[in-house]
Every structure is written in C-alpha cells, then in structure tokens.
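Fold this sequence, please.
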Amino acid sequence: MDLEFDFEKRYRLFREIIETLVLTVLMFLVIRLAVQNFNIDGMSMEPSLHNQELVIVDKWSYFFHAPARGDVIVFVAPPNPTQDYIKRIVGLPGDVVTIQDTKVTVNNQQLTETYVDPQRQGNPYAPINRMIIPQGAYFVLGDNRNGSSDSRDWGCVPQPNVIGRAALVYWPLGQDNFGFLPGVSSVYNNVSQSQTITGNNLCPIRHVQPATASSPLGTASAAAASSSSQLTATPSENTDPLGTASMLLLPSLFIGWNRWRHRRTAIQAKRG
C-alpha cells in the first residue's frame, strides 16, 4: 500500500515537472513573438531615450489598432534595410506636414512638442512645405531634432517596415526615463483627422522592406546592424543575457507560483 502511494506521488511529481516545462516553453515562445528587446545605439531620441539603454518593443499592439501620432516605433530603416531605426510618429497617412526651421505643423496645426529639448532643437535639412503623407506610410522624427536622420532626410516609413512600438525601458536602472514610455497624445489633441488628399507633393518612400515574420505589419526577416545615431536590434543569440534570462524565468516563476497556490488551496480544503 505504501509502495503504491509512493509510486503515485512520484508519478504526480514527474507529471507536474513535465507540464511545467511544456507550459514554460509555450509561454516563452508567446512572449518572444509578442515582444522583443532592443539596444539603443546613439542619441537621436534624446532626451526620451538614451544611448545604450535597453527597451522592450511591443510587436502585437498594431494587430488591434493602427499606429498613432506620438508613438515611438522601431522599424526597418528605409535608407538602409540592414539597420533598424527608432523614431517618433508625427504624421499619419493622409496628413499634411510642414516644417519651417524648427516649427512642425500637421494639418495646419503647429505642434508644441514637450518631448523635444530646446537645447537639442534644430533642423539641418531643407524646409518641407505641405508634404502629403501617402497611404500606408508614416512621417517620423527623432526627438533630438538637431542630430537625427529621419523623414526630413529620407522620406516616410512604409507600413511593412514597422516592427513594433517601443513600450518599456528596462535597463539600466536609475535612469530618468526608466519604465514605460510616457504618452504624448495631448500634443496632438488639436490636430484634425487625416484625410484622403491628392497632390504631387507626396512624401517619398524608399526601400520597402518587410519587418520580421512575427511583426504585425511585416512578413519577412530583416537584419540589424549598429548605427551611430539610430538603433541596433539586440541579437537573439544570448548577447543580452538579462533579457533572455528574464523571458525564461518569468514564465517559470509564474507557473510555479500558480501551481503552489492551487496545491495550498487544495490542502486547506482537505483540512477544512
């Protein structure tokens, strides 16, 4: 009798270990498809994002809603498809954008961009006068206006290039922007809705390069390389042990805690 009880106990333990491992792997794969960690390389998004910071990019949100003005996105760079850039969306499809010196106007509404540091304000590029954002594309700018290669330089980002929305800064600790990226939708509250506008002054689009296979807006893989003022994707081959370890440990801890809670509840119910 004791032998049979011991066998059942061992079998139950073995089964729970197998189930935990399987669920951990499944949760890891789901998390890996939903989010991706990136390494900021450069200062084109100062003061919002700093050089060498690690960010989590949400790759699933745009399955359920379209990108919005003010979103910080990671995308395959139109001027160089071997690189991934990170910029802020300023213009949506159908918007009309004008940039004179440092003044940015969208649909005849001049923006008061609270996220731009006056000391980093500037415009080394030619003025833009009533440029129309074509359907399926986005006009993006770096927050460091005096040190960013963006839509002022090479044109709009086509939708298939978008990898996802930068959502969370998770390393290093103690930075002034550690945590979720703040929402800036209030900057665009007075901008009128996009319209279907025809004209010859369309924002140019270069090198449509579908993003990663798990991206909501792309279908193929894209390589990533460093850039002095843009963004480098952290390779998945364990070059970021913190990000990889957290993706492995969090599902395991959650499943283990959930099983312990259920077992404790069952024991208390038997005693009761």
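Residues 2-34 form the longest helix (33 residues). Confidence is low (pLDDT under 50) at residues 213-229, 232-248.
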